[in-house]
């Protein structure tokens, strides 16, 4: 199969939206890992007074992680899938959380404008057609010194990492998703990871896009070598001038 992109991918997520949270709940540590990645942003004072952009919020799992770790932040959550966004917006949220439907390539058209103090993107970058263009746009949305956090399936580069990912997808995730009528989306899930960057390559991609202080941090549990947190920063003006 070819990878799903743009409208086809959004439509597949629309179809899966009603069952998505149930499948996520079967993933050990899913929500705790997201909170760990948010903490790795290192934002001060529980996010008090900060603007944070949640890119690719899905049904709101990343949004929930942000509100748990950064209760004082104003959070704009964005997703291209109407079905996923409807599920997210229907959940109870504290004041300061808003939801907007938009592809990440068309944020300005939807009224999503910076500067933001931080951008968090979970399970997003491997799903876009041009990740370099998206990272450049994200850098432009950040205030100088603003922080980027990416929580993503990026294999560590060992043959074992790919083998474990394939075993989990083909032995557990895909059969369950196929029974629920969402097999195409979860076949895409497997392939989108094995065809995307390794962790080292993605860290280099962030540096090329103009982020500094880039770190690639493994996540614990069964996802070790499969999923990572990446953090980076938009340089301060004097550092930009020196590049």
Structural overview:
It is a single chain. By secondary structure, the chain is an alpha/beta fold. It has one domain (7-156, 197-235): 3-Layer(aba) Sandwich (Rossmann fold). It is built from nine helices and seven strands, in the order ααβαβαββαβαααββα. It has helices spanning 6-25, 30-39, 61-69, 82-89, 131-141, 159-179, 183-194, 199-208, 237-241; strands at residues 51-55, 74-79, 97-101, 116-122, 142-153, 212-218, 227-233. A seven-stranded mixed β-sheet has the order 3-2-1-4-5-7-6, with helices on both faces. Helix 1 packs parallel to helix 4 and helix 2 (30-39) crosses helix 3. The N and C termini lie far apart (42 Å). InterPro entries: SAM-dependent_MTases_sf.
List the helices and strands and how they pair.
Elements: H1 6-25, H2 30-39, E1 51-55, H3 61-69, E2 74-79, H4 82-89, E3 97-101, E4 116-122, H5 131-141, E5 142-153, H6 159-179, H7 183-194, H8 199-208, E6 212-218, E7 227-233, H9 237-241
Parallel strand pairs: 1-2, 1-4, 2-3, 4-5
Antiparallel strand pairs: 5-7, 6-7
Helix pairs in contact: 1-4, 2-3, 6-7
GO biological process, one term: antibiotic biosynthetic process
GO molecular function: methyltransferase activity
Organism: Streptomyces griseoloalbus
């Amino acid at each position: 199969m070819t990878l799903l992109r743009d409208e086809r991918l959004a439509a597949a997520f629309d179809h899966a939206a009603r069952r998505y949270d149930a499948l996520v709940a079967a993933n050990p540590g899913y929500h705790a890992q997201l909170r760990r990645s948010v903490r790795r942003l290192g934002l001060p004072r529980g996010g008090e007074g900060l603007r944070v952009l949640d890119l690719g919020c899905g049904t709101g799992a990343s949004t929930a992680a942000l509100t748990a770790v950064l209760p004082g932040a104003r959070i704009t959550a964005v997703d291209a899938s109407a079905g996923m966004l409807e599920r997210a917006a229907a959940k109870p949220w504290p004041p300061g959380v808003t939801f907007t439907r938009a592809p990440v390539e068309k944020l300005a058209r939807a009224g999503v404008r910076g500067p933001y103090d931080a951008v968090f993107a979970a399970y997003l970058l491997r799903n876009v057609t041009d990740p370099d263009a998206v990272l450049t746009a994200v850098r432009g949305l950040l205030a100088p010194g603003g922080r980027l956090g990416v929580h993503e399936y990026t294999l560590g580069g060992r043959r074992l990492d790919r083998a474990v990912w394939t075993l989990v997808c083909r032995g557990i995730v895909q059969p369950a998703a196929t029974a629920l009528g969402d097999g195409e989306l979860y076949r895409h899930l497997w392939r989108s990871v094995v065809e995307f960057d390794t962790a080292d390559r993605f860290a280099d991609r962030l540096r090329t896009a103009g982020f500094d202080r880039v770190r690639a941090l493994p996540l614990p549990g069964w996802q070790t070598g499969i999923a990572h947190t990446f953090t980076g920063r938009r340089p301060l003006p004097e550092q930009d001038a020196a590049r």
